[in-house]
Design a protein that fits this description.
The protein contains 20 helices and 32 strands. The relative contact order is 0.08. By secondary structure, the chain is of the alpha/beta class. An eight-stranded parallel barrel has the order 1-2-3-4-7-8-10-11, surrounded by five helices. An eight-stranded antiparallel sheet has the order 12-13-14-17-16-15-19-20. An eight-stranded mixed sheet has the order 23-24-28-27-29-30-31-32, sandwiched between helices. Bound molecules: (3S,4R)-3-hydroxy-2-oxopiperidin-4-yl beta-D-xylopyranoside.
């Protein structure tokens, strides 16, 4: 028997505490289709690779599953592949090409002409003297022809010229000792020798060698206002002059704060005016505020990434990909710069990629992959009202009729604000600073109806939202929000009916050595003198339901967010139940530590409940103090307590209820006569099959059992409000 309870408990834990189970078990975020398959109707998904990436079987497996475009990170750069006149390093360059050929993966050829990692020998003669531009062009042409001819069978696009434009923030520059307005062009050796003609020449040579490949001008910081315009002007000028530029490569070395959607779209829309092909060629998201492609950056201290930083990164990836999908008419490829954080040119501590330093997929990968095309287009209905739980006069948070929630937080100096509430699988809703410096944001989709706890994470610190009231959950007072539910009337205040009241009872508990508290619902009319059967005036005595909260909660949870008193008033007023008392005590659930749930016996609470609280209740209130007028029910961990205590002490309680709190099996009870009624319920997003099976088994074994599967809800209070409403109607009959 003991062993069975123990395993039953373990099973119950897995189903009733899903987050707990998640914490213990590593999640495989790469399970599911590859990115390339998820995006097959949008654009190809690429990755920049190094030598190890294409040799190590575990890494090649990731490449083959996720990507259908490959860029050689360094091996094809002029300085690497062609370091001296007549000297070619084809070794690694060929290996990468062959890996792609063998696996049917197409490549982006990166890059034919760049100021960095360039074949600088092209600028000087054998004596080290500068050559004329005609000599340089001859050499560049030979270089481009050789590389393109060697690989064009496997290449679909070439980064012909890389990073030829100047960065923002340099309105003036010194040329020959004089301060002059800054040139739009980077002052590279190429530019100094040839002016912008070298750009045109490089594209012409590439077109000669590959008449069909897509020829790209590639650069970083395309989302900066000045650089965007410089790139636009240059490409436009070139195209007007007949230079064969097919598309623009936006490198995409961004960070978790920048760019926002608007800034990114500005660049895409601007480039759309002159090209119909855009590639996002080098995507990675630093976890600091740096961005761009210049070879200056903080590699960061060796430190693990704080969870809120991960959430910011996931959110930024989600936002950027949403914009990319929106512009899939021009965006034909998105390439990650490096396979994993371990490979990243930014250093492992920038954590910039969807695969971590051990090549394990991060939640970012799942979030990028499992997008919802319907949600992409969805605009929340504009019928916002303040959350009913707001503090007086507070406009935010707000909810709309579809179940979206939106938030507004004033924190002028903050770097990031995250609301813990959001769709499943996301770390919450990340707010963005609006034009007035106020943080705002809307949940990505509709929330489940009913009550939700939440909090704010501001720069990594946890705070409550000053807009709304606080509710005890997660072992602390949390902010709360109420999403309108289709059946919300059953827990709504009604002015036209009598109301009971809730009293606080404080009592000394010897076993815990502390004062303890219970809240006691007394129905309207409690204590009144009424005529009894023999005509004498007497006070009515009532049955009692002991109703337990879950982990992290306390004796306030049922009366406040559970709305137990309102539900009781409404049931009594509608004649659905005969009045009874509800006792909502603290269930000692919060000293329990994660990882020790297998050892949880509820023995302490059993002592407190039966030996200490019940005598107080039976003494202070007009109860019917016997088993057939006493019920025990609880939600989640309170359900575990209920199950353990009712099975150990069947002589005390005649009605038993588990609300998202596991199930009874007939052979655990053994005798249908010990219990008059068993209730089991949960949300349809929890474990409905378990409940349905258990109820059927109990019924088949002769028990009076009833189940409730709450529609559209999970492990949350609307499930339990509905359970109480249903269960109460069958108690004490
Ligand atoms: C980087 C490589 O990832 C590094 O390994 C190398 O040391 C420097 O270059 N813009 C580009 C890429 O176009 O070629 C750069 O790659 C990153 C910035």
């Amino acid at each position: 028997m003991k062993k069975r309870i123990f395993t039953g408990l373990m099973l119950a834990c897995m189903s009733i505490l899903p987050t707990l189970a998640q914490w213990g078990r590593p999640v495989d975020y790469s399970a599911g289709p590859g990115l390339k398959d998820a995006y097959k109707n949008y654009f190809t998904i690429g990755v920049a690779v190094n030598k190890t990436n294409i040799s190590d079987p575990a890494q090649t497996a990731i490449i083959k599953k996720q990507f259908n475009s490959v860029t050689a990170e360094n091996a094809w750069k002029p300085g690497e592949i062609h370091p001296k006149e007549g000297v070619w390093n084809f070794g690694l360059a060929d290996s990468i090409a062959n890996f792609c050929r063998e696996n049917g993966i197409k490549m982006r050829g990166h890059c034919l002409c760049w100021h960095s990692q360039f074949a600088d020998w092209m600028f000087t003669d054998k004596k080290g003297k500068p050559v004329k531009k005609e000599v340089f062009y001859e050499r560049l042409r030979e270089h481009i022809h050789t590389v393109v001819n060697r690989y064009k069978d496997v290449v679909y696009a070439w980064d012909v010229v890389n990073e030829a434009m100047a960065d923002d923030g340099r309105p003036f520059e010194f040329v020959d000792g004089k301060m002059v307005p800054a040139s739009p062009y980077r002052q590279s050796r190429h530019f100094k020798l040839c002016g912008d003609e070298f750009i045109a020449k490089a594209f012409e040579f590439a077109r000669e060698a590959d008449p069909t490949g897509v020829l790209i001008y590639n650069d970083y910081s395309c989302v900066d206002n000045g650089k965007r315009e410089r790139i636009y002007n240059m490409v436009k000028k070139m195209k007007d002059a007949g230079v064969p530029i097919d598309g623009i490569g936006m490198q995409g070395h961004y960070n978790i704060y920048f760019p926002d959607e608007e800034q990114l779209e500005k660049a895409i829309n601007r480039f759309k005016e002159i090209v119909n092909i855009i590639h996002i060629t080098e995507l990675d998201l630093r976890t600091n505020t740096e961005s761009g492609g210049q070879l200056r950056f903080a590699r960061g201290e060796a430190k693990p990434q704080a969870p809120y930083i991960g959430t910011l990164q996931e959110d930024q990836y989600a936002r950027l990909f949403k914009v990319f999908r929106k512009h899939a008419d021009v965006i034909k490829n998105v390439t990650f710069w490096n396979l994993s954080d371990k490979d990243s040119w930014l250093g492992v501590n920038n954590h910039p990629l969807p695969f971590d330093e051990n090549f394990k997929a991060k939640r970012s990968l799942q979030i990028i992959r499992d997008f919802d095309p319907v949600a992409d287009k969805r605009v929340p209905k504009d019928d916002w009202v303040p959350n009913p739980m707001n503090q007086p006069g507070q406009e935010y948070p707000q909810v709309n009729s579809e179940g979206f929630a939106r938030f507004r937080v004033v924190a002028p100096e903050a770097k990031s604000v995250i609301v813990s509430l959001g769709l499943g699988g996301r770390g919450g809703t990340v707010l963005r600073k609006d034009k007035d410096g106020v943080w705002t944001g809307t949940t990505e989709g509709p929330m489940d109806p009913g009550f939700h706890y939440y909090h704010l994470t501001i720069d990594g610190g946890v705070f409550n939202d000053p807009g709304t009231h606080n509710y005890f959950g997660s072992c602390r007072w949390e902010s709360g929000i109420e999403i309108p539910a289709p059946d919300q009337d059953f827990y709504a205040w009604r002015k036209d009916i009598p109301h009971g009241n809730i009293q606080q009872v404080n009592f000394w508990s010897e076993s815990t050595g502390k004062m303890q508290t219970a809240n006691v619902y007394l129905p309207s009319g409690y204590g009144k003198l009424v005529k009894g059967k023999n005509g004498k005036l007497e006070q009515t005595r009532y049955p009692v339901l002991y109703l337990q909260h879950g982990w992290g909660e306390n004796e306030t949870s049922w009366p406040v967010q559970g709305k137990a008193g309102i539900i009781m008033d409404n049931l009594i007023a509608d004649g659905k139940i005969k009045p009874f008392i509800v006792v909502m005590a603290y269930g000692l659930t919060n000293d329990f530590k994660f990882g020790t749930i297998g050892k949880f016996t509820a023995e302490e609470f059993e002592k407190l409940l039966i030996d200490e609280l019940m005598p107080v209740i039976d003494k202070q209130f007009l109860t019917k103090p016997d088993k057939w007028n006493r019920a025990l029910a609880g939600l989640s961990m309170g359900g575990m307590e209920t199950k353990l205590i009712t099975l150990r002490r069947p002589e005390v309680f005649g009605y038993w209820g588990l609300l998202s709190g596991g199930q009874y099996a007939p052979d655990e009870i053994k005798d249908p006569k010990v219990v008059k009624y068993i209730f089991e319920g949960c949300g349809d997003k929890e474990n409905p099959d378990g409940i349905n099976k258990s109820v059927a088994d109990l019924k088949a074994a002769g028990y009076n059992a009833e189940g409730l599967i709450s529609e559209g809800t999970a492990h949350e209070f609307l499930t339990w409000r509905r359970c109480l409403y249903q269960m109460a109607q069958s108690l004490f009959k």
